[in-house]
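Q&A log
Question type: sequence-to-structure
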Amino acid sequence: MWRESRAFGCHMLWWGMALFFTTEWCSVVLVDSFQPVHWNDGFSNSLCKPYTRQSTALFAGTKKKKKRSSGSSDTKNSSGFGGAAMESCPCGSGETYASCCGKLHRDVNTYRMATPEQVVRARYSAYAKKQPEFLMASTHPLNKNFDTDLKRWKNSIKENMYDNFDMPKCCIVQESLGPDDNEATVQFIAEMILRETGEVTSFMETSTFERAKTHGAWLYKDGVIEAAPGSETLDGSASDADSSDGKSPSMEEK
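Response status: OK
Response body:
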């Protein structure tokens, strides 16, 4: 009986504690059991024009997008000293990575102050910048991919970081807060470019977030994938929202 009680207590301790490791430092964040665990956040406002929700017929469009020009650059002016600091943020905000999503990736306090929209952008950028720790830290304990075995979870994410893709932008369509401001939904369109061919693909997701009671950060709980207007899959066929497995680079852990 004592052993069973001890095992149960250990299990509950895992759900009440999240260990998050970054390249610079480690942080142990105590959170309420069954309460969202926030850690990362941070997008500046998107400069993309907002999409308007249209009929589902548009989601099955087969129009191809132009391939990315070989002369495009992921940086503003990277010449001379401080070039790395001028690197454009992958989320497409028009800001530098250091002043946009990078702030959330390296500073827990910035993450705690971030809006749900900013968390979406930061999670998108985390895939582009190979930041599995941020994805783990900004995931709700009740998310289906949350894993108390942190090493296994981190390795799983690292194996699915979309290494064959460039991630140029994440356009926010709509952000909505619940009546008590502790829940939120964010609808966004994420774009990905297959490096080998330059083919562009995109998807639309409606993500659900919940605010942590202890420190107030927003945690990704789940998401629903739809085909983006005029998008198509990498094999050239029209995207089918009904066939989606609910995974996305900006939101869903593997």
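Response note: The CA atoms of residues 151 and 157 lie 10 Å apart.
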